[in-house]
Amino acid sequence: MVERVAGNTLVVFVDEAQRLELDHYEWLRDVQDELGRRGVRMFIFLVGQPGILNRKSSFRQSVDTSQIVSRFMVDEMRFQGFRTGDDLKMSLGAYDTSVFPDGSDWPYTRFFLQRAFDTGFRLGKQQQTVWKAFEAAHCRARFDFTMEIPMEYLARTVEIALTDNMEHDGAGFALSPACWARAVEESNFVAALEALRIIFVDDAAYRQ
To answer: Domains of the chain: which residue ranges?
Structure first.
């Protein structure tokens, strides 16, 4: 592939990297070495769940596997969720502008709430209402870390809000704070944060 584009660099993204075993890393090492002999530099980005950090720690404990860390796990970067209401605007607005099928007049918001959309309703204008719904759920759970919303739970909340309210569509209709509160609750956002609590707390401690 690199030769076809007359290049000397290969970048590989490995998703769900927490599932890789030692044999997989040794295979990647062999491929990297072979490419190096052919003058090709191979960069690998591991993308995974927090469990990948446990794997990194275990590799560090042994001389035989510490090289895996030095090769493939030098730097860490945690993906951050949405941290303010303004952060939501672009993602919510995408539901108002992304169409399916291509070339049609049917953005996702309009598909679910046609009459409301045609009379001015836009998800992109509801970012503060949505943020407050998540914020209220976060407060009720009494979490002691700064709130952030993982993309998965924003998308799930929007899907629930749209599908649950199709029957209420009408001219002038808008998703109310109560609608969003129910959608956030059904998205399992609080349960997800409870499971990720240690990640958020450790991150806050690191920032201090």
So the answer is: 9-72, 88-207
